[in-house]
Amino acid sequence: MPKEKMTGARAVVRALELEGVDWLFGMPGGTILPIYDALFESKKLKHVLIRHEQVGGHAAEGYAHATGKVGVCMGTSGPGSTNLVTAIADAYMDSVPLVAITANVARPLIGTDAFQEADATGITMPVTKHNYLVTEVEDIPRVMKEAFYLARTGRPGPVHVDIPKDVLNMPLEFEYPDSVHIPGYMPAMKEEPRLADAATLVRSATRPVIYLGGGVRASDAFSEVFEFCELLGAPVVTTVHGKGAFPETHPSCLGMFGMHGSRYANYTIQDSDLIVALGARFDDRVTGKLSTFAPEAKVIHLDVDPAEISKLVTATVPLVGDLKKLLPRLSAEVRKTFEERGRPDLSAWWKRVSDWREKHPLRIKQDGEKSILPQTAVYRIWQKCEGKAIVTTGVGEHQMWAAQFWKVSAPRQFITSGGLGTMGFCLPSAIGIQLGRPGELVVGIDGDGSFQMTLQDLATAVDLKLPIKIFILNNLFLGMVRQWQELFYDNRFSETPLTDIPDLVKLAEAYSCLGLRARTLEELDGVIDRALAHKDGPCIVDIRVKQQEKVYPMVPAGAPLNDMIGGE
Amino acid sequence: MVEKTEQLPNGNVHTLSLLVENKPAVLQRIAGLFARRGYNIESLAVGPTERPEYSRMTVVVRLTQKPVELVVRQLEKLIPVIEVRELAPSDKLERELVLIKIKTPEKNHSELRAIAETYEAQIVDVSPDALMIEATGTAAKLDALEERLAVFGITELCRSGAIALERGFKTLAPPHLK
After folding, report:
1. What pLDDT does residue B5 have?
2. Which of A18, A233, A367, B80 could form a disulfide with B21 if both were Cys (CB 3.0 to 4.6 A apart)?
3. What does the CA dihedral B80, B83, B87, B88 come to, rounded to 10 degrees?
């Protein structure tokens, strides 16, 4: 490619085009004006004007989750960059490929406490995979190339690029590099993976369980994981980000385990003698009290990030590498071992697992209940979508009810904020998902508290005429905190009741979109039908659910995984 | 399965040698990692290497709960960190520099000179009622010197923190230079 003379700002836009970016999310401001000016003439990039930078970040995350591509968000200096921090931290915790671009004050002003100055890279350093403060205009093409490369390869994550305004205005001879040279990134593996040892463990286990995490999605290793699970024939449990890594409609799948997992999933992992962890990190929300977690289990831990191996739970056999490449090799080794030594007999184990599943299913106790149970609402929406929608959530009780009752049968259909647990994720994420996967049905399951954290961006969804449907399980409470107060703080509901403000139907009208409400069970189905039939822009559905309903079963924080409240 | 919370009363001290890219904010990245992951830094020394594009850091870390391999793997995740190695006590050559100022009348100076000689230390500044001693060596040797001088009244002291290299031919280097 011949060199071309342009400004730093134009070079940023050009790099985005060359990286194949279609949608990007941001808001202009004084400092980032040069980039927006260059954007004005781009024919390839479609910019979404969000109303708050955090929303741009989450929308980029939703887009990335749903498409597997890198999400891009932008913000100006100072508050523009600090508003992005929550979304960047969210992407860091959930390993979402994200490139965040911010402008900073001109170099002579840096360090002078200038107007809208913030040490953006200093702030994002602990919550990014890597970040850059670009001080020389010639560095822009290389840095942009590296940023996208780092965001999407290895363990994906957010990369933040901060560029001072004067650098954006300087000229350079633009040439986009073909490759990256980052000597400290992903050093070659020091030892061969111990596949034979892993296969031997699989062969000798009588109570194995496969534990799937978000790494399956990050690695796009759905078919490889399916093949491995079928080969082993063992029970499969997942994290909230593992939902969709293996079809939840498959008889081997026990769904989510952990703090709000089913009793049968928790009993299964707790009593197992071998855990095969694929792209998962033994978060405290899934292990419960660590010292009592699966006491008899040996562990095969396959992860692309060596720092996750034996971080919390010691791996008997660590396997470091990309699931998509390494898991087929493990499958081949296991298949060979099975051919030589026969398959292990798991029938006694399956008998126990099936007994648990029969005895402690996830129940919805709607019978005799007049008000709408939130679980019923989730289940009815799921049924009416025939399991085909892409669902996203906020954070709180509604998120866990969705995780329990929204069975996912295909990859990239359950998108949520897991690690950071960011309330307000739902609406922004739905925007990004719908843009990334136009033509598909995108459903949000949100809470009244969570929705109010980012609701201003209804305007963005309306502007874009996105037919997203946001179902708000409205209990007029910060429900998950209320649940903890009821169970562990003697019913002292300190600052958790919310008022009946805003009127969500009128709010929808104010934003020129459809607003619906269901107060009774009789109204529920009709309202869901109307929402799903509405194709002309977003729809907000206020579903009044039983206030006292709690998410069960529940493992209290710090308790052993099989020490659950409720859900018998 | 065993939980990784083996409690050691004062923890174990490890010397880590890091080869890092000589770029802005690298020290901040590394210091920040130690702080947010809860690793206690005993000392940290950083300086240029045989190649201008790289710096070498020697970090002495005290760990009470976590195995050192985890610290190494976390450090290796940082993009500007090329390589990290824990230097085993038997394999490493470790040195530290100390400057010690003692406020003491001139009559004691000859005794202090004798002590300094024992420790292969030098008197680097003398005034009528004070002198400064410079010494290099292992941390243990400098500790001993400090203890020996304490009775004279140390008024100021500055230690560099350890720098260390592995004995023999092994080196830390980026992949393309190996």
Report:
1. 42
2. B80
3. 140
